[in-house]
């Protein structure tokens, strides 16, 4: 308890993102995750470096900031070269204050790593090329529409283009629906038919362009380019440039954004804390 009071009054490393916080607030200043080091009821484990008690679901030690997954990977590695590579990667991540990315190309080793990580209570995100299991018009369009106001994720290249195509094709049934709505109002409010028609078209266009803008921002997150480049969509000639940028492949040098919504993850953490 003494360690916890000292930690709370001085500084701590976020249990989720690992970033250093110098605040008395129990929420991380970066990812807003509620810190559980002062919750007595939850199950705890020992940090693999300093040995202090931390919540069992912590990705990082609140005291020394060690990434528990990196140590777990070192234990699974057998060669000195791979261990040295992990050490160098963790050192670079600490310097850049970024969430570490572990690249495991061997499917068997990846499966073993995920299994061991779950035992240790470490949260693991497997970052593929797209969020959809199999990209296509239907799944990617659903994703495009579902996340139409979400900019806190990545969006894979295939999901972006399939989703854009599917949403554009939706303009056909939407146009038919608008025609039906206008025809219904034709007999009731004949003088306002033109206004109703324009409002319906404007509503669809507003939705389409907002969805396109947010999808472009998520695509830029996936390419690891600045999000403000999405504003090129609204500059004459810039839309072509932005679409060319959207064809670039995924980059994985940072883990700031994944295919998971961080707000949803934080809500789940808060729900567990309430329990």
Percent of residues in helices comes to: 40-55%
Averaged pLDDT: 77
Strand content: under 5%
Beta-strand segment tally: 4
Shape from CA axes? elongated
Region (Disordered): 82-101
Protein name: DZANK-type domain-containing protein
Keywords: Membrane, Transmembrane, Transmembrane helix
Organism: Ligilactobacillus pobuzihii
Describe what you observe in this structure.
By secondary structure, the protein is mainly alpha-helical. The protein has three domains: 2-66, no CATH class; 68-120, no CATH class; 137-245, no CATH class. Helix content is 51%, strand content 4%. The protein has helices at 2-9, 68-76, 80-96, 107-120, 137-146, 157-169, 171-188, 193-223, 238-245, 262-274; strands at residues 12-13, 20-21, 44-46, 53-55. α7 (171-188) runs antiparallel to α8. The two termini are 21 Å apart.
List descriptors.
mainly alpha; 3 domains; elongated; membrane; DZANK-type domain-containing protein
Write the layout of secondary structure elements.
Elements: H1 2-9, E1 12-13, E2 20-21, E3 44-46, E4 53-55, H2 68-76, H3 80-96, H4 107-120, H5 137-146, H6 157-169, H7 171-188, H8 193-223, H9 238-245, H10 262-274
Antiparallel strand pairs: 1-2, 3-4
Helix pairs in contact: 2-4, 5-6, 6-8, 7-8
Keywords: Membrane, Transmembrane, Transmembrane helix
Protein name: DZANK-type domain-containing protein
Transmembrane segments: 160-189, 195-215, 227-248
Summarize the structure.
The chain is built from 10 helices and 4 strands, in the order αββββααααααααα. The protein is mostly helical and 275 residues long. InterPro entries: DUF805, DZR.
